[in-house]
Amino acid sequence: MTQVQALVFDVFGTVVDWRGSIAADLGAWGAQRGIACDWAALADDWRARYQPQMQRVRSGAVPWTVLDALHREALEELLPKYGLQHLDEADRCHLNRVWHRLNPWADVREGLRRLKSRYVIGTLSNGNVALLVNMAKHADLPWDVVFSAETFHAYKPLPQTYLGAAHMLDLRPGELMLCAAHNDDLAAARAQGLRTAFMPRPTEYGPSQTKNLGPEQDWDVVASDFVDLAQRLGV
Amino acid sequence: MTQVQALVFDVFGTVVDWRGSIAADLGAWGAQRGIACDWAALADDWRARYQPQMQRVRSGAVPWTVLDALHREALEELLPKYGLQHLDEADRCHLNRVWHRLNPWADVREGLRRLKSRYVIGTLSNGNVALLVNMAKHADLPWDVVFSAETFHAYKPLPQTYLGAAHMLDLRPGELMLCAAHNDDLAAARAQGLRTAFMPRPTEYGPSQTKNLGPEQDWDVVASDFVDLAQRLGV
C-alpha cells in the first residue's frame, strides 16, 4: 500500500449525494415557483436511465456523447411524466445543470483535505469535465486533477478509464487507488491492477437501498467514510 | 469582459520561473554531490530545444510525444556538453523531473487564490498532465482544472488546445481568457476567439531577455503581475 501515490474517486454516490441534493435543490426551486413535484422520484427515474444510456455509448451504438447531453435526453423523456412539459428552455437548462450543483456527504471535505496532504487526489467519474469542475467549485472539493470519461472518450467500467488515469499521472496501475462506494467499479479497477478502497453509502438510492451496502471482495481498504479512509491511510 | 467565466494560464514562464528554479534546484543537488555545472546555461540550452522538438510533433514528423519524453531526449543530447555523461539512470530521471519541481513567481499564489474566488482557474500548458499535477503539489498552485497539450494530443499554438479547453468547460471561446507572458500564445488564443491577458515576465530568460518585455497587441487586459490581474478583474 505504501506504493500508492494517487487516489481517484468515483463521484456520483461516492463523493456527492445526488438523490438528496437534487430533491433539495429542485425542491427549493419548485417551491419558489409553485411547482409541486416528487423530485426524489424524478431523480431516481433520471438516474435509472444512466447505465442504459452509457451502454449505448460504450457499445458504439451511438457516438461519443458527454453526460450533460445524456442527462438532457433523459430529462426530456421524463418531463411529461412529472407534469413539467411546460418548462421553457432556460428552466430545462437549470434543471439539467442540477448535476453540477450536487452536495458532498458530510465527511467528504475533511477527508479529502487530509488525503490531499499526502496524495494526489482526483476524480475518475463518468461526469463530463464541465460538470465536475463546476461541482467542485459549488461544493468546495479540492481536487488536484479532474479525470472524466470525457478525458478518455470512454465510460467506466471500460479499462481505458482506469488505465488512462494511471498513464496520465505517469504511474503504474498499482500506484493508483480507486475509491468508490460501488463494488462493480472497484472490480473493474482491480482487473486493471489498481488498488481499491470501498466505503458504503447506504442511502445513495434512498432509505430502501439494497445494493452496495457492504464490500463484496477483499478490497485493499474498507472504510466507513472519507475521514476513516484518511485515518486508515495514516493521514 | 463580464462574460469571462474561466481563466487558463500558460505555465512555463508565466506561472513558474523555470530558469531560476532549475538553477536553484540542480545547483543545490550538484553542490551536495560535488558536481560543478553552469545549471542556468544548461536550462537555457534545454529550453532552446523545446520549440523545435514540439514543431516536429505538431508537423506530424514524429508521433504524439509528451513533454517529459521530449525533455529527456534533449537532456540526453546535452549531458556530454556539460560533463554529465557519467550520471546514472536514477540521476537522469531526477534531473529530468526538475520540470516538475519549478517554483512560481512571487505574485502567483496570492493572485491565483484571489482569481479562484470568482473564476474557474486552470492550466493550458504544453507540459504533460503528470508534470503539471506534480508541479501544482510542489508549488501549491490551486488549479480547478489541469488542461495540457496531452489532453488534446496537440501542442500550443495549435487551435485545438484553446478551443478544446473552452469546449471541455462548456464555454464559448469568448467566455474563456488565456493569461500568458508570451505575445505569440495570446495571438493564437485571440485568433480562436478567446479573451487575452498579458503580464510581462522580463527575467524569464535571464537578465538579458529581449522578447516579450511588453504587450505587442491591445490585449483585453495588460497587468504587471497576477495580483494586478486580480485587481483589474475586480477580485
Task: Tell me what the structure shows.
The structure is a homodimer of 235-residue chains. The first copy, chain A, is of the alpha/beta class and 235 residues long. Helices cover 45% and strands 11% of the residues of chain A. Chain A contains eleven helices and six strands. Chain A has a six-stranded parallel β-sheet, with helices on both faces. At the A-B interface, α7 of A face α7 of B.
Main beta-sheet annotation of chain A? 6 strands, parallel
The H-level CATH homologous superfamily of the largest domain in chain A, spelled out, is: HAD superfamily/HAD-like
Unreliable residue runs of chain A: none
Percentage of residues in strands of chain A: 5-15%
Write the layout of secondary structure elements.
Two copies of one chain form a homodimer.
Chain A: E1 6-9, H1 18-33, H2 39-48, H3 50-58, H4 67-78, H5 89-96, H6 108-116, E2 120-125, H7 129-139, E3 145-148, H8 149-152, H9 159-168, E4 176-180, H10 183-191, E5 195-198, E6 221-222, H11 226-232
Parallel strand pairs in A: 1-2, 1-4, 2-3, 4-5, 5-6
Describe the structure concisely for a colleague.
Chain A is of the alpha/beta class and about 240 residues long.
List keywords for this structure.
homodimer; 235 residues; alpha/beta; Rossmann fold; DNA polymerase, domain 1; 2 domains; 6-stranded parallel beta sheet; 11 helices; hydrolase (chains A, B)
